[in-house]
């Protein structure tokens, strides 16, 4: 594979972005029926030219620092809607002064030492795919983006213990490529897979592609190694321990605020051989919810249990009957359980129908490119996700739809919902919201919708995030969701590990 | 069920303890062939008479306090070998000054407030089944045992969300009895099940009876409510969240040192209908290990995967052929996977043999009574457990056997090993050690063996505890196992929640 340029402002590889003509085709074919858009396309931004950095790299680490405008601009934001639209408009008021790309753990240590002495904030950065403002510093003083992508070594693939020792900067495809010759896989496939790193997954407790069972990155962690401003922390490399609070739990979800995850020991597995899939249509949404609940409470473990509400089914699975769809799948030894699952769904009026053409998984990984095209077409387009108990879900679903509609200034928003994960006690619904924007006002429009929707989620028993992390955008609701005393213990941990408060200030604590 | 008296010095119900004659029969039939014992039986201790308490209960809470010798003596220790033998000898130098039995959460709050003002240490106590010195205060000043068994309300059995809301003092059988009419079960069965509480399970991250899948109490926790000296902490009642570090993780395994768990929301399930079991003999221990490893790495999930080493197979499964035994079981939808599992074990030379007579589970729950009889027969008898990677296990097994043998002053110790839990990256071996004691020197004899064995475990990549918790007995190895900085964050959490340091001093931090 030759080198392919990454987009500095949008998702993924620059050469995979939709060009102007493709954007216009998308508008004509897919959007006009639903949304009032004029079909004009915001041009891609010119190369950025930023003011000079306020920091000078230390000579000993000069080789690891970048200070050019393109490097700094491409590390200024994550990849949320509000990031892409701001970059598209050249709106980059607070880019990193420097980008540091350590080659080794000692480089990380040296960079933190230097930053603490220099009074610079440090924002750890994996693939930069945050959609919650996790990698965007919003404070005053100078800051450094600590891009960990050169920590890319896979030191050991241990087939006896089914463990891989991997540095934090390894991207999804590189990890799977290293495991493939051993017949192994991590089986962790977040939507950002191609452009996110092991360290980013761990720091944000990333959710995988599978609906049940081991899918969140937490499930695959045996041990971690973390560099903090006060020294290293490493957890024991044992399959399980009951010795005190879980030794990995403080850093899983620490979002760069407590330390820099530099290495992990992750559990890998053989690729499952068998697979069994089905698509089910239901007479109504309530029946589909009851069926999905019974299915996940039955002790069966579908790898895929993606319930699409009628709007999502129409837009993303071509369902013209206005009915919900359940995309069901089992893998490995569990493939034998599909008939038992179908028996459950049939009891709730579910009917097996032909599978829609095309690969969801392929479309899933391409969606962010389409999103960028929609942004260029002037739409406000973003996703919101949560998890709640089954008994709260119908009210939460209705409240999110109502909140998005009434907060959309155009008075019209397309809101769709699917389940990404399901648990015995409740689903993890994932909403996509699309509404026309107003050139230059896209960010406040989205922020208004986001606030209304987040309030609706909180009021209906949902968490502010099931797998997108907290970052800066979710802070107000995160702070409400957790007991003040629990948050005080996090602040105490932060003071212990990062007394200078240099690590990702504004995130979590 | 009428009231049955609990033994104040030994395990469980007083009327189930083996009497002198039964102890002698046990010696003749089961022990003489293996161990040099003289057959004399230590008499049960007389009722204790303790010096007056150094504390006076606050009048407002007088109804919740007990100060009589029997109440205090029965709360002085847990139920480890060293606890039972000391109580048997009337060796109770540091019993609680008072036992407090709060009726409600406000009582817990008031008790903590009073204790902090009175300068008394507080040791939270569930069923008192600790085997690691978790409920035995070893400091100087006065102390109160906070017995939570009156927090025994099961407020809600929620069949829609499959969640039960339960107070911390509920014992295993009471919880299952409340769930049974709903066709539900928690499916968490530690060996202490009958005499341990929900709060104790949570505070010690108790391990259940099943070998794989959801079995540790952590797996069943949706949310917790904890009273700390600085106020309450409650985690969100959602099926899953990626918002920051896991909100339950700080208190799971906190062993009463960070707060008093008063209530929990636990995930329950339907009782599995199907079951499939098999017993397998192997030509050698190495083959049995390879088979077990492949089995657990295959993606099959046996509920039971108890590999007995040849000594354990001989003593506890009547195996006279000197070969290892694997007790294998699948439940629920997974029952169909037994043939696939047998195919794997056969490839390693495993042969299915008739199942030994009797119920392991029944014997398992009765073992602690037998243990008490062995103590009265003058034996040193205790268990040690850990978890390590597969690649470390054979050396760890050999090292534990050698360490126990060479530390046993009689020069002879019976050491057996079985797996209680198995993970893709390694097993959780559980060792039973029996050796002749010397009247009055039992505790130092065991402490010497324990130290040697724990050193052997640590040197061979094992954790100091897979599911018995840290307590006071495991502290030196726990402190070595974890990074000093991680331990500093625990101390910081402790200072935040319990600045007076009244909660279970000496445990964890």
From TrEMBL, chains A, B:
It comes from the Bacteria. Residues 92-271 form the FAD-binding PCMH-type domain. Keywords: FAD, Flavoprotein. Transmembrane segments: none annotated. SUPFAM superfamilies: FAD-binding/transporter-associated domain-like, FAD-linked oxidases, C-terminal domain. Pfam families: FAD-oxidase_C, FAD_binding_4. The keyword Flavoprotein applies. Belongs to the FAD-binding oxidoreductase/transferase type 4 family. This is FAD-binding oxidoreductase.
């Amino acid at each position: 594979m030759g080198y392919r340029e990454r987009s500095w402002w949008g998702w993924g590889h620059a050469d995979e972005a939709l060009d102007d003509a493709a954007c216009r085709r998308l508008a004509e074919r897919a959007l006009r029926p639903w949304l009032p858009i004029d079909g004009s396309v915001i041009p891609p931004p010119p190369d950025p030219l930023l003011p000079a950095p306020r920091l000078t790299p230390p000579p000993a680490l000069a080789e690891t620092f970048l200070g050019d405008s393109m490097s700094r601009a491409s590390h200024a934001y994550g990849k949320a809607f509000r990031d892409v639209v701001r970059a598209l408009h050249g709106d980059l008021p607070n880019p990193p002064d420097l980008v540091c790309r350590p080659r080794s753990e000692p480089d990380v240590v040296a960079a933190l030492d230097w930053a603490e002495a220099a009074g610079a904030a440090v924002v750890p950065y994996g693939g930069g795919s945050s959609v919650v403002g996790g990698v965007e510093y919003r404070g005053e003083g100078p800051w450094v983006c600590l891009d960990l992508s050169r920590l890319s070594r896979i030191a050991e693939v241990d087939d006896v213990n089914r463990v891989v020792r991997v540095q934090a900067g390894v991207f999804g495809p590189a990890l799977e490529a290293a495991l493939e010759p051993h017949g192994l896989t991590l089986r962790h496939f977040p939507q950002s897979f191609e452009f996110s790193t092991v360290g980013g997954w761990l720091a944000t407790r990333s959710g995988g592609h599978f609906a049940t069972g081991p899918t969140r990155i937490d499930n695959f962690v045996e041990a971690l190694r973390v560099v903090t401003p006060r020294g290293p922390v490493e957890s024991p490399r044992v399959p399980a321990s009951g010795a005190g609070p879980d030794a990995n739990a403080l850093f899983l979800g620490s979002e760069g605020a407590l330390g820099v995850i530099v290495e992990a020991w992750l559990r890998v597995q053989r690729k499952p051989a068998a697979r069994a899939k089905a698509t089910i249509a239901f007479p109504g949404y309530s029946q589909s919810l009851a069926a999905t609940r019974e299915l996940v409470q039955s002790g069966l473990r579908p790898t895929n249990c993606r319930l699409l509400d009628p709007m999502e089914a129409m837009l993303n699975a071509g369902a013209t009957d206005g009915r919900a769809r359940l995309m069901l799948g089992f893998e490995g030894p569990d493939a034998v359980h599909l008939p038992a699952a179908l028996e459950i769904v049939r009891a709730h009026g579910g009917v097996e129908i032909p599978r829609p053409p095309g690969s969801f998984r392929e479309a899933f990984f391409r969606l962010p490119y389409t999103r960028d095209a929609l942004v260029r077409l002037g739409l406000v387009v973003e996703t919101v996700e949560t998890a709640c108990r089954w008994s709260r879900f119908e009210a939460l679903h209705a409240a999110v739809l109502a909140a998005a509609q009434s907060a959309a200034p155009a008075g019209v928003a397309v809101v769709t919902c699917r389940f990404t994960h399901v648990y015995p006690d409740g689903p993890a619904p994932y909403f996509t919201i699309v509404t026309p924007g107003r050139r230059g006002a896209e960010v406040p429009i989205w922020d208004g919708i986001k606030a209304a929707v987040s309030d609706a989620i909180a009021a209906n028993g949902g968490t502010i995030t099931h797998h997108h992390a907290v970052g800066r955008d979710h802070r107000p609701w995160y702070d409400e969701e957790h007991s003040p005393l629990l948050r005080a213990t996090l602040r105490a941990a932060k003071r212990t590990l990062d007394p200078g408060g240099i690590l990702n200030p504004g995130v979590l604590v």
